[in-house]
Structures are given as C-alpha cells and as structure tokens.
Design brief:
This protein has about 160 residues and is α+β, with helices and mostly antiparallel strands. It is about 40% helix and about 25% strand. It contains six helices and five strands, in the order αααββββααβα.
C-alpha cells in the first residue's frame, strides 16, 4: 500500500478560517491541508492536462451536507475534472464520472484499491452518471483518481 500523508488533526474547520469575503491564497490552502498528496495532484493535473486551479466559494452538499467554503476546481475546456475540498491533513475530491465514461470506469474499477471499489459501488448513479467523493489520504487512492480522470479527459 502507498504512503499515507495524514499529518494533522481534523479539529480546525476550513470555513471558519476563510469566509466568503476572505479568499485564501494557494500557499494558505497548501499549509492548511498539509499533505504531500495535494501538490502531487495539482502538479499532475497542470502538467498532464495543462489545467490551472480555480478557487470558488460555495455552500454545496459535499461533506454530509455541511460543506461551505472555498474549494479548488480543475476543468478541461468546460468539463469538470475534479473539485477539491480542503480538510486538515487531507482533502476531499469530487470526481464526476459521466455516462460516456461509465463503461470504461466500471472495467477500470476492478484494478483499483478496495477503498475505490467500495466508493464506486456505494455511490448512487444519477441521470448524468456518478460523482465519486474521495477522501484523499493515500498515494494509492490518488493513483486511482488519476486513472479515472484520464478516462474522463479521453471521453471529451
């Protein structure tokens, strides 16, 4: 199993540090998350797909309906690749799998970690596919995400 980069306790709430009027810098986000996996994913997305992170403030339904705050979106053209939600010591990553990608994703899932297999099986399909909510705490899970993102980009 790959390295786990979970260095902090989760007692500090992101939305309490950065309200709607206080946009955090990239370095402040990195410092708060404090995991080697954050840079790994950001560098990969920028180098492999030439996409830049875009900060956005939302009050969406992630994180058991309690998410409110700044997130980081990566898009290729108009297609969302993933949206990242800062947590102390790790981050949540919402990765959409559209209907076009579903067949290939179902085949790929059998090669992924047990965590990703369970996440995929337990995520309910909607009219547009599935939105997988990864807790990114290990290199193995990050690798699974990269494989699924590659499917998403290829289906454009």
């Amino acid at each position: 199993m790959g390295e786990v980069c979970d260095n902090q306790d989760n007692s500090i709430n992101w939305s309490e540090l950065w309200d709607k009027e206080s946009e955090p810098s990239g370095s402040q986000i990195k410092e708060f998350i404090d995991t080697c996996l954050w840079d790994d994913l950001g560098n990969y997305l920028q180098q492999e797909y030439n996409v830049k992170p875009k900060l956005s403030y939302s009050g969406c339904s992630m994180d058991k309906g309690n998410w409110k705050g700044w997130n980081v979106k990566y898009k290729k053209s108009s297609k969302a690749l993933c949206t990242l939600y800062p947590k102390r010591g790790y981050f949540l990553a919402l990765l959409p799998i559209g209907l076009r990608e579903m067949g290939e994703a179902e085949i790929l899932i059998s090669t992924c970690t047990e965590y990703t297999q369970n996440l995929f099986a337990q995520t309910v399909s909607g009219r547009n596919g599935k939105s997988l909510a990864f807790e990114v705490k290990s290199e193995d899970v990050l690798l699974d995400m990269k494989k699924l993102i590659a499917i998403r980009v290829a289906s454009r």
